[in-house]
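Researcher: For the annotation table, I need structure tokens for N-acylglucosamine-6-phosphate 2-epimerase. Please keep the output clean. Sequence:
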Amino acid sequence: MTGWLAVDGGQTGLRLRTSDGRYGTGPGFSYADGDPVASITAAVRTAAVRAGVAGPVGVACLGLTGYPARPADRDRLGVAVARALNAAEVRLCEDMVTAHAGALPGGTGVTVAAGTGVVCLAIGADGTTRKIDGGGHLLGDLGGGFSTGQAGLRAVLAAADGRGPATALSGLAVARYGGGPDLGQRVAMADSPVSAVAAFAVDVFEAADGGDGVAGAIVVASAANLARTAAAGVRALGGDDVRIACAGRLFDAGDLLVAPLRERLAELAPSATLVPSAGDPLDGAVRLATAGLGRYAPLVHVHRGTAAPVTEESVVDGLPFPAGALLVSCQAQPGNPLHGPGSMARMAAAAAAGGACGIRANGVADVAAIRAEIALPVIGINKVAAPGGTFITPTFDAAAAVVRAGATMVAVDGTSRPRPDGSTLAGQIARIHDELGVLVMADVDSAAAGIAARRAGADVVASTLSGYTGGGTPDEPDIALVEQLSALDCPVIAEGRYRTEDDVRAAVAAGAYAVVVGTAITNPMDITTRLTKALR
């Protein structure tokens, strides 16, 4: 058992540390990723997988950018993280709280945490607490990595078209982003534009250290913004003999940033004292995971309960669902009004409420959202268009992405068609077993493909691709193929065009271990289209 687990989650990345010395990282937070509960849970799960955390966990403490404002969402996040980590207790708070706990072990004073964004927390001996800034890159975070990088990039564009003076930042921008007149477009089209802009703060500090006047002025302006934020915290605590500590990666710039900050603070908060930070936000998360919450208790949401995930080895044949189970495929393609992780999570919740024993879902976002919403096992797929027709999870990397998002097992294309990375089906399955530690379901189109997939190491064989790899697609499910596959020495899943009670009963009678139903349950647009055509 892992005694405690601590997380520092920011916009650029997430860090995880455990009581037994394990360390892992995950992706940063962005509201553009959809449901924050799902994206945060997926990032935590990714870091835990990378760290080799197998659970159970005693106490997990997470300091987070994107900490939900609504109590109901905090409850959902607590449950989702408890499931993901098999944690007995989950402590959730804003990253400003863990930054304060790491920087000021005494528990009182002002902490300015600056990384990609900026947030300040003031805590007084009388219990006063005040948050300053933390408004996000669109409306706040003044003086942080994003605003510093943004000012630098604006200076580069101004120099390029004659609106501003020449600056060494221009060459640094070319080195980081490439040359050409479309810098703005390239940054905007980055996987994470916020992180891409914030990364340029490092170049701004480098240029300022080298004597560039434009960069130097940007650094001084950022320091002034940070000083105004800190001074507001000092005033909130009465203004007398208040300690100020700075935390976050932005302060890795050292005196280049701290010296002008100290100079401005002397004007704005002369009675305050700037002190060295005792630790960083991850240290603060460790502290709040291993000790009483004390002054921080009002700022921390605590979830306790039996929220551990389904024990996958507790059912027959090692599968996470029993024989005779109905599994529901929750997928909606672009163009369908239900497309998106939020809709699919609610659809999965409805299926669970109706008695489904598992969910099949496509893509990282949907898998993460569904795992955050319900406790059922999820068969993850990752549809990737590839030459040769292979489409369903055609590579190891595609499988790894959905496993890190929370998939309980993975379904892959189990046909003989070529894979885009040149691997074989047997090689892909072996890597999934060895490196991801999950079961593999092979989606096949024929009895011969099923036999070959089983020989390649597939744990389960499914009739999913019958009628979809050449020729016309029939209207009815392929019960005959299920019967042929049932001769294999592994469970067989019936999938593909199952719509009625008679269909699912026939599949089980033909030897299916379980049945997957998708469109007939989760695609009202298709159902409506069929029924409308029937009336014409």
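Researcher: And a one-line annotation?
Model: The first strand starts at residue 2 and ends at 9.
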